[in-house]
Amino acid sequence: MTNRTILKIDEMSGNYGTVTEGLINNKQLYKNSVIVMACSCLEKDWGIDELIDELTVSQINGELVNFALDLYFNYLGLDLNKLTENNTDNEKK
């Protein structure tokens, strides 16, 4: 995900903020995940329907949402694995 992705998401969905809010608050989670994934690709301009048709059932049901969230959090500079490890370490103390 890059700065250009934000503009692509805004153009595709009408509002970047609504898409990211949906990811965080589980609103239209799969649709917003596909939008983030489609707009984040640097090698090809994907349409939503085109990308959905290319994904497998296991990708949609098991990997899509986490992948989109990872893209978004990585863009923000957040490492969720590190945050989880820190929380676990703090709980042990």
Q: What's this, in brief?
A:
The protein is built from six helices and no strands. With 93 residues, it is mostly helical.
Secondary structure: elements and pairs:
Layout: H1 3-13, H2 16-25, H3 29-40, H4 48-54, H5 57-76, H6 80-92
Helix pairs in contact: 1-2, 1-3, 2-3, 3-5
Rg estimate, integer Å? 15 Å
Q: Profile the largest sheet.
A: none
Secondary-structure element pattern, one letter each? HHHHHH
Low-confidence sequence ranges: none
What's the overall average pLDDT, rounded? 89
- Distance between the first and last residues' Cα: 36 Å
Task: Report the β-strand fraction as a percent range.
Answer: under 5%
Q: Could you say which structural class the secondary elements and strand pairing correspond to? A: mainly alpha
Number of helices: 6
Number of strands: 0
> Per the principal axes of the C-alpha atoms, what is the gross shape?
globular
